[in-house]
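Give me the fold.
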Amino acid sequence: MDGQPDDFEMVAASLRADDADTHTYVEALATKLEGALPGHVQVERHARKLLSHDKVVRRIAIALGDCRYTLDSDGSGTVDCTRAKAVRGIVLKNDRLALADWVTALAQDMAAQAATSEEARIALQRLLT
């Protein structure tokens, strides 16, 4: 990555998939983010049915600089996405976003951090390869 302003477009494209099947998309997104941002992403999975070994993503939480991204899923395709701005650990603003807007905002913040952080640049490379 060379820090160009449109780097976030490449990241957003790598995070987007066919979101017609939201459940499958959330599962793939969680796996991709866990691999690219270890230590910054927490994924909560719960059993789909009682005593089932089949677990589904219920929450993705990402701490990225001063932003906190959260995606909550009901496991059947309904998601609730938020982006919070925090200063010194105190949330000042909390925005609810559509899934596509959430992915775009996350990609923009990742690209911006990659311009100044080696760790963020490596994370972007993991997403794109």
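The helical segments are 7-15, 22-36, 99-114, 118-128.
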